[in-house]
Amino acid sequence: MRITRIKLQNYRQYRDVEVDFSNSSKDLHLLIGDNAQGKSNLLNAINWCLYSSEPHLTNQTRALPVVNLDLLKEESYNENQLVKVEVEVEDDDTIIKFERQANYLMSQIKQVRKPAFERLVVSKQKKGGNWQIYRDEDAISEVEYYFPQDFREIFFFDGEHLSSYFREVSGKKIKNTIKVVSQIQVLEVIEDRLGKVLTKKRREATKANPKTQLVEKEITQYNKEIERFRSQISELTDTLASARNEIKELEEYLGSAPDIEEINTQRKTLLDELKYYEKLRKDKESEFYRIAPGLIVLLFLKEDMKDFQNKIDELQQAKQIPPTIERRLVEKIIEDKKCAICESELREKNLETVKNLLESIKISSDLARVLNEQDKMLFSNISQIKAKRKTLESIVKDISSFKKMENTKRGLFEKVDRDFSMIPNPGEIEKAWNKRRDLSAAIGRTNRDIGSLQAQLKIAIENKNNKEEELSRQIKKLGLAKALQNEIDFCEKALNAVNIAKLELIEDTRENVRKSTKEKFFELNFVSDNYTDVLLNENYELDVIHRYGIGAAGGLSGAERLLLALAYILALHEITNLDSPLIIDTPIATVAGENRLNFAKVLAKISESKQIVLLLTPAEYSEELINSFHGSFATRRRIICKGSTSSVEEYR
Amino acid sequence: MAKWRYKMKLNTYILDKFEEVCKDDSHLLQCLKNLFVFELREQGQYMNYYESQIKEHAEKGGAE
């Protein structure tokens, strides 16, 4: 099957363009155009024609209607403008024309971006026969017959949207389509129908036996349970896949943008620490101001105090300070009228002498006591100067250390703040990070749910198998008519054989796709020494194994990713025997040198049995590439955009 | 079931697999082949056809 012609009318920048793909020994066609000339829109036009959707749009164009908007500038534009894309295909002896039309009311185009009507018509003509026309559901069915939508990424390869080839959703789509393509789906139908026949036969055999009927009922119950668990698992697996894809998309959007919540937490922590050290410093400063004035006074008086102390010392040493007599003792003697030592009664005369003594020592004793107290106080004050000075020194040290910490924290806080102010759209980034976090949590929960359902499913399957065996044993004991017993046995055998064939086919197909992808990747990739193997998991997700034995798909360079995806597409074409065309947009923008030449060689070889259309930028269309094709392309054209209208011309 | 224009090219794949799985059981193989062709033709009313196939091949297989 090959595309023979594409006709575009009023579709985006194409006013009236027809591209013929005439055949030659090699069905290789080159369309060269700079960016924004209409290269990708040619691919979009085919997609729009077949599926009414355009997956290769930029966000900016996505919002615009497909009608050529230049028509609005024209003075006498028609109120109704028809957009038409026709893709003509040749399949053995049949010509198929897919034509989509959309009618736009131009006066309302700014308000109503959708067409007033849109329709797909498919016309088919067998060689020498009449044209058959298909509309509505029949037309869609014809598209699905030739270009199944789920498989479109395999017909229309977009080098600029590579990531989609590495996503789980694409993998699942591919897996399902391969199931259809490789007829595994037919086996599933046979399996299901054989199961129903077996149930019917068993019912026939057990209709008069309540015991076996009970087992049969239990089997039906387990089957329902198994069905329910499988559908729940499938639903959750889809949720999981789309959550993972969303995370991948968010990661692509976020790039190296920091986590805003983390930054906010960091800012808060730094601010708290800054405030903490500020408080410590202020407390110490208050303590300093409380202690310092006292010390200043003491320091001010220190010399005088020392002089005074020295004077007292001198007087003491010269014994010029009268002895301090304990006045209270003398007063007690007078009061008791007794000697404090021998306790003998004092006579009046002696008492008088003691009274005189008390009078005479009063002044000198008071003076001596005052001097002693002063001496002690001076000593204490001088000692205090030392202690207070030490305390103040320690406070000053603390203040300085807290200030240092404050400065460090302030510096860090200001840096985080500065970094934060450099983030473009922090609100959007924060939302994206929050969403990523929520999705991660949801993935964790879903994984747990899937795990639990899988465990329940396993138990239900085991129970069902046990009951099946039990039923089989019981039926044998019933002594049925030989013919019925034979039919039941045969049906069980047939069901088992179909099941084994199905499982083996699923595995074989995957293994064949994997092997072919590996072979083609190594053929395309000049530096494939870095990798030793290509893996394809059961969800049809790709991975490559680095020579050190670790999965490396995430670390592939842009060029390697492109070559791996391309190898995968080529392998899918080969294994599924797709004879459909392959249209590749911007295939080798990231590929250089030897790999580019390998690409040309591989594509030239494939084009001997498959139609290939390459949409290239002038940078991709290099001298070395042309040389590698050895001039074997069937057509070579240039897409040129003048003003805002594109045309396709022969390349000169 | 979705139509698919490439199906005939891949049928040999499945038929080979049936031969592999059925080994020397020619009746089992024939029965599965018949059911497969029946499904490819997308004929309705499967129950009668399936039952007749099971009956026919179980009989023949049992007689061997």
Entry summary:
The complex is a heterodimer of chains A (652) and B (64). With 652 residues, chain A is an alpha/beta fold. Chain A has helices at residues 39-51, 59-62, 136-146, 152-155, 168-181, 184-206, 210-254, 260-317, 327-336, 348-422, 426-477, 482-524, 558-575, 593-606, 623-629, and strands at residues 2-11, 14-20, 28-32, 80-91, 94-105, 117-126, 131-135, 156-158, 531-536, 542-546, 582-585, 612-616, 635-642, 645-650.
Strand content of chain A: 15-25%
Termini Cα gap of chain A: 29 Å
Summarize the amount of helix of chain A as a percent range. Answer: 55-70%
Give the strand tally of chain B: 0
Overall geometric form of chain A: elongated
Q: Alpha-carbon distance between the termini of chain B?
A: 36 Å
Radius of gyration of chain B: 13 Å
Radius of gyration of chain A: 48 Å
Strand content of chain B: under 5%
- Main pleated sheet of chain A: 6 strands, antiparallel
User: In terms of per-residue confidence, which ranges of chain A show pLDDT below 50 for 5 or more consecutive residues?
Assistant: none
The structure class of chain A reads alpha/beta
